[in-house]
Please model this.
Amino acid sequence: MVWGDKRWYIVRPVSFWNGSCSLREMRASFKFFLVVAVLAACAGGHAQQAPPDSDLASITARGRFLAEYERSAWYATDVVLKFRPNQDVMMKFIARKTDTGWLVAFGNLDEANGAFVISFEGVQDPASGKFSAKAFEPPLRDTGFFLAAARGIELARQNAALQKGRPYSTFVLPLDSGEFYVYVLPTQTVFDLYPLGGDERLLISADGLKVLAREPLHRTIHDINLEAVSTSDAIAGIHSHAVADEPEDTDVFFVVRQKNPAPEFVGTKSGTYEIKADGSILRMK
Ligand SMILES: [Zn+2]
Model:
């Protein structure tokens, strides 16, 4: 699924009927209505069946999961740094959501690809939500979840279309079937510059050895400077999908990971959707 490579901002709408609009406000309103019209045009022509609400709820859940994954990795990294680990180990972490909170394992695949060798882990306390660090000496050899996930991450990186010279982050989302998704997303490397797009989701077999499906989610990468946006009239973002007929998990992730989340509108063949600041999705038409 790819998109139309287009993105705009929605600027703060003002009332035309209060009789007190400045020229600047009228321009802002004009832009607001313009983008709504553009989205309507995106949705027209080849209308597709809208996804059921349960699908939208699943997209929201997966998007929120990605944001939790990222946040947990940050907190775990902070506490593990006290052991002064080498950079190579710190770059290869895998987060797992358990019944008692998140656990982030830092390690490497062994040479035979037969174990994920864990040097450190960050564990979330279920009561406080805070993370504490643990170092393993000798390292822990995992042949279960983390081995499969590490194999899957390697496979996903090999199969995804990556832009040269650009760092990518991976996220592992386990499914009830035992299979799991690996997301490959451009890494945010500059504070307040949030990448949107250029991302893929791959379905990986339970043992981590096979790519079962590959789904490019958005083709183009837009680096959105939300610091600049927050000081302007913009109150939301807007982009169109040329082929995808529903919002993507990473659209929700893009919104909920922001420091001060701003809604994002997504125009598709099945209609226009608003991703609200909390990640829930509203179909507008
Ligand atoms: Zn999108």
Notes: The chain has two domains: 7-14+21-54+148-234+245-283, 67-143.
